[in-house]
Amino acid sequence: MKQTDGSPRELKKAAVLVAGSWGTALAAVLAANGHEVVMWTRSASQAAEIRDSHANTKYLPGAALPDNLTATTDMAEALKDARLVLFAAPSSAMRQVASAAAPLLDPDAVIVHAAKGFEIDSLERMSHVLAEELGRPLETIVVLSGPSHAEEVVKQLPTTVVVASEAEGYAEQAQDAFINSCFRVYTNRDVIGVEVAGAIKNIIALGAGLSDGLGFGDNAKAALLTRGLAEIGRLGQAMGANMMTFAGLAGVGDLVATCTSPHSRNWRAGSLLASGLSLDEVLAKVGMVVEGVRTTRSARSLAARYGVEMPITDQLYEVLFQNKAPREAVESLMLRDRTGEL
User: Fold this and answer.
1) Does the predicted model carry a pTM greater than 0.90?
2) 12 assigned to active site
3) Is 95 among the annotated ligand-binding positions?
4) pLDDT-based confidence at 330, cuts 50/70/90?
5) Where are the domains positioned within the chain?
6) For domain 13-189, is the CATH number 3.40.50.720?
7) Residue 274 contacts by C-beta under 8 Å, 6 or more apart in sequence?
8) Which helix (H) or strand (E) holds 93?
9) Which of 142, 161, 192, 318 could make an SS bond with 174 (beta carbons 3.0 to 4.6 A apart)?
10) 12 belongs to an annotated ligand binding site
């Protein structure tokens, strides 16, 4: 993979924590832009494969990684002199990874995260978790989100995302590090909206996969996406988001990509649930983190905290954790009390 926009770039070191599919794809973007990139992973065999074979077959089978992308199990080595640090850990592991990284970071490094979920116990957004653990002002944390399957990003298929920070200068630094002719990056100052949209769309994708698995057709899925976007907007607005964000890349853009593609783990998990597998069987079959499952718990708690109605989330919670039959859940949504759309 070569730099794709032809423009000169100052060579900088970037560190990526951890080496899952999304972290690896974003690391490949940074490497394609001329940065020296070091990924951190706990797995010695995975680090060796990335370093020696330029591949990460567990998460991105068949993808060839750039020569200037390497990996290590030594977090201090990965973070030494890194001017940009991308946290791509699952939401459930973000605090642990950030705590380990905190004493090793360059104080001037740009901090970006690409996780889509809430912390299950505190219900905090990932930017809050990072700010707390790293001892950084909240406005300096950048979130990267948008419609972007790792499998397509690593192949340099056209992709457009958004980077959000309350301090526009930090978002612009992240924009400059990632943008190229295949990977277009917009900035946004609405961190709350970008994080809420990225998290809740995974719940709606579970529902979309379930609907497709039950053979309910395009009409049902179109309604699910539309009413799902309404749920995202209601919760986001209650938490202080800008409603315009939900009409953009982090909102409807990511929702469409995640709810309509077999690349989506959440869509696949919903489809497998519809086939009659248990949740444990589904998670084992997917083989990677399905953020929407944990986020369903968090979103239900957040809805109660903010007094927001989220019927799709409620029904998926009952399917996931209370053994409600998927068809019965759909019937419950269709037979809700009649109301106006707006």
Assistant:
1) yes
2) no
3) no
4) confident
5) 13-189, 192-334
6) yes
7) 209, 210, 211, 212, 213, 214, 326
8) none
9) 142
10) no
